[in-house]
Design a protein that fits this description.
archaeoglobus fulgidus dsm 4304 fold; disordered N terminus; 11-stranded mixed sheet; 38% helix; alpha+beta; 377 residues; single chain
């Protein structure tokens, strides 16, 4: 909801709000300065070999990354888009997912393919089950993930690519392991099968599978650092700061361009997370952070461990991501994912068009719009 000119003026004239803003800004600056201090302390450990900490797969916290020369590389980026609307008596979901496949030769982009096409029609899902708002949003999110993972698996099965990069995590996100609704349970089980199928196909074909999380809110690496607090000569006050810090916020003060963190396990105890439903694959999922350009935050990368050791897989993935993400100094995301995102994006008008067609063919007494959308004033 946008603010009116009048309400903005009211806010601007509020002394209590101004004081609250000043207090909030001061607290943010203070916290950031303390995080910077911790970051500088960690940055000094670049050349120090540490005993492998619990959850960390390599002996150093930070590593330099070599850029993949892209001599003869075919890399696939997968992304999807989602629109949904709750209506009276039924709900609508629109999903589109596609894969963009870049073929590099001698570091030059030689060609681009799309699967199933450059602009595939969206998939329409109508939901008549009586789901509450949270359940419906959860279902919509799973439909999007399912479309993306099935698209990636189709590319992997067809072959012809060395790497597949997902836009986002390579683990199901924002899902409940034991949903109350039968339709959600069925969709969750389908989603788990789709992910394990993708892992299996990539592993058998020797395809590197990774995901780039644009705006990570993760704290896994901070949790690892806190557990090994005594190794870093930090003060107890620093531990309190880490309790309020996300990974990317801290690493923004640590990583330089072309540097990554050590690879780390996705979670400490896979049995306590959705990873337990992924079977043995859960133990093969790792992550790291990398800074690819000077004026953007570190990027979280997740990957499925290959036949080599974790460090070797991490090096392969990092060098590829670095090469694909260094084109704009202020936006460090792999170019193939940017292309997939641009092609997959749905416009709000597409959902409105579908809803209007449905409304036009229904009985006039059956108004599908919710009451809050039909206010006469």
């Amino acid at each position: 909801m946008s603010l009116s000119v009048q309400s903005v003026g009211t806010f601007a004239g509020s002394l209590s709000l101004e004081q609250a803003l000043e207090k909030a800004i001061k607290r943010m600056i203070d916290q950031e300065m303390k995080r910077k201090k911790i970051g500088e302390a960690l940055a000094n450990l670049r050349e120090v070999d540490l005993d492998v900490m619990r959850g960390v797969a390599e002996k150093t916290l930070f590593k330099e990354v070599g850029m993949d020369p892209l001599v003869d590389v075919r890399v696939c980026g997968v992304d999807g888009s989602l629109l949904y609307q709750q209506l009276h008596g039924f709900d609508l979901i629109l999903v589109r997912a596609l894969a963009a496949i870049f073929h590099y030769r001698g570091a030059v982009l030689e060609g681009v393919e799309y699967s199933p096409s450059e602009l595939p029609p969206p998939k329409l899902i109508d939901v008549v089950e009586p789901l509450d708002s949270w359940e419906f949003q959860s279902l919509a999110g799973m439909e999007r993930q399912l479309a993306e993972i099935e698209t990636a698996a189709q590319v992997a099965e067809r072959g012809g690519v060395e790497s597949i990069l997902l836009d986002g995590s390579i683990v199901p996100q924002y899902v409940e392991r034991f949903p109350r609704s039968p339709i959600l349970l069925e969709k969750y089980q389908n989603l788990i099968r789709a992910y394990t199928r993708l892992y299996q196909v990539c592993a058998e074909a020797g395809i590197v599978l990774a995901g780039a999380v644009k705006d990570s809110r993760g704290t896994r690496l901070v949790e690892i650092l806190k557990a090994a607090f005594d190794k870093f000569n930090l003060e107890k006050e620093d531990l309190l700061i880490l309790d309020k810090t996300r990974d990317t916020v801290l690493l923004n003060h640590v990583l330089g361009v072309g540097e990554r963190t050590s690879a780390f396990t996705y979670v400490e105890k896979p049995a306590s997370y959705v990873l337990s439903d992924l079977g043995s694959w859960g133990a093969r999922i790792y992550g790291f952070y990398i800074r690819t350009v000077p004026y953007d935050r570190p990027l979280r990368i997740e990957f499925l461990k290959g036949v080599e050791n974790v460090a070797e897989t991490a090096d392969r993935v990092a060098s590829l991501v670095y090469a694909l993400s260094s084109y704009h100094e202020g936006f460090g995301l792999p170019s193939v994912i940017i292309e997939a995102d641009a092609c997959a994006r749905l416009a709000e008008e597409e959902l409105s068009w579908v809803r209007d067609i449905i409304s036009a063919r229904l009985d006039p007494d059956f108004a599908p719009d919710l009451r809050r959308e039909r206010k006469p004033f």
